[in-house]
Amino acid sequence: MRLKNKVIAVTASTRGIGWAIVQACAKEGAIVYMAVRRVEDARRQVKELNEQGRIIKAIYCDAYDHQTYKDMIETIVEEEGRLDVLVNNFGTSDPRKDKDIEQTDFHDFISTIDTNLASVYIPCQEAIRAMKGNGCGSLINISSIGGVVPDISQVAYGTSKAGINYLTKLIAVQAAKYNIRCNAICPGMIATDAVKDNLSDEFKTFFLKHIPLNRMGNPDEIAALAVYFASDESAYTTGQVVEVAGGFGIPTPVFGDLAGGGTKR
């Protein structure tokens, strides 16, 4: 019960990585709020877990409506008396519009950056105000390996995630005086439904050649790190941007060819 009685909010958490984080935190004894748009659907989703003794609640939050971030945190503090941990899991990109530097319209570029940065900046700002009275707190931003390793497409998404990585370090420095920590997790190719349904088998096979561990990650593996950052075990860890990507981006560029059965040295 590493998170017993901690009050935790997780945005965009009805599926994938967010849902894995909700379950992992609740299993460790936390009071977990799912900050989502479809509140009634989320309540039905957690009904069985609540009956098993897990404490999971749903609260309204729309990533495209900035006011709802503030309302969400204020409501949690009113109901529970505090907020201990905030996990910013929302992130968006439209591959049909978010292409390379030549093909991506500037307004689409700015729109994606605005949405993704706002989904971290505003909740963190409000959470810090709420956590100051606690004497401690933990902010966890779910970023992406795409914010570390440049890609041949998704120029806006990658730029926004790189911004989140910097913002994480900046917040860590500026909130340290309140004993509030801020860390980021950069998932690589994770076996969520979105990845499995939207990427071709050909692309996945090609991509795996560039991952030293030669597999996709599991949402639970991201959740495990989130639990660590949420717990008191990481009380002296802040400003870290941790890649959970199976080693993607680390080897020599020819690694994929060599590992895929190409020419050997």
Automatic annotation (TrEMBL):
Domain of life of the organism in this record?
A: Bacteria
Q: What is this protein called?
A: SDR family oxidoreductase
- Which organism encodes this protein? Dubosiella muris
